[in-house]
Amino acid sequence: MTHLIETPRPVTPKRPFLLRRGPMENIATVLIAVGFLMLFQPFLLVLYTYSLVTLLAGTVMFIIVSKFPE
Q1: Which of these, 32, 28, 30, 51, lies nearest to 40 by C-alpha position?
Q2: How big is the chain by its Cα radius of gyration, in Å?
């Protein structure tokens, strides 16, 4: 008769929210979408003024976050 002994898996600590890839990619994507909407809205000049900065921030954030581990 054979008894199988299960070895316990090492407990990996959960990463903080800001260091997880999935949620941060979603935030970066939303930031890109907001920048795009700011760029093409015809009402407020201040939104148009900061649209490129918002798009660039979202893009850079997405590039950095895509390097995070799963």
Answers
A1: 51
A2: 21
Confidence of residue 18 (pLDDT cuts 50, 70, 90): confident
- Please report where in the chains the tokens 């903080």 appear, as a residue: 16
Find tokens 């939303």 and name the residue. 30
Report domain extents, the chain. 18-65
Per-residue confidence at 20, pLDDT binned at 50, 70, 90?
A: confident
Encoding tokens for residue 61? Answer: 């954030």
| CA dist list (Å): 10 to 1, 7, 13, 62 | 28, 9, 10, 31
Structure tokens at 48: 């148009």
CA torsion angle 48 29 58 45 (round to 10)? 10
